[in-house]
Amino acid sequence: MSRHGWWALSKEYEEAAKTLGANAFHTFRDVTFPLLLPAILAGALFSFTISFDDITATLFWATAQNQTVPVKIFSMLRNSISPEINALGAVMIVLTVATPLLAGYLSRKFSKIKP
């Protein structure tokens, strides 16, 4: 266990790979990156989810040429509720529910410790 706590990436893995003859690139590719991948994916999912909540900031900073999905939805809702809005809402709900379920399934599938 690292002396920095449970959250720190232990240098022991990298040192072991280098002791066994791996260079810096192979150590990063085969040891460090797989250990960081769950955190990178979680951060990407979190930022994607949070981005839908920033409609006010997007309306304030966005230019006329750049129209994000939340701004497009908001502008479509101003006129009327169309079947396009209902379909887009259903797709967003399915993606919001399916993404964490898929991430949990893949983490169980690729983990070495089976429940």
The portion of residues assigned to helices is: over 70%
The counted number of beta strands is: 0
By secondary-structure content and strand pairing, the structural class works out as mainly alpha
User: What shape does the CA trace take?
Assistant: elongated
Number of helices: 5
Instruction: Provide the gyration radius in Å.
Output: 21 Å
SSE topology string: HHHHH
Q: Let me know the largest β-sheet.
A: none
Q: Distance between the terminal alpha carbons, to the nearest Å?
A: 23 Å
Sheet-strand content, in percent, reads under 5%
By oligomeric state, this entry counts as: single chain
Low-confidence stretches: none
Mean pLDDT: 76
How many domains, in number, for the residues? 2
Care to give the gist of this entry?
The protein is an all-alpha fold and 115 residues long. The protein folds into 2 domains: 8-51; 54-115, no CATH class. The chain contains 5 helices and no strands.
Description:
- There is one protein chain.
- The protein has 115 residues and is an all-alpha fold.
- The protein has 2 domains: 8-51; 54-115, no CATH class.
- The chain is built from 5 helices and no strands.
- The protein has helices spanning 11-19, 24-51, 55-61, 69-79, 83-110.
- Helix 1 packs antiparallel against helix 2 (24-51).
- The longest helix has 28 residues, at 24-51.
- The protein is elongated, with a radius of gyration of 21 Å.
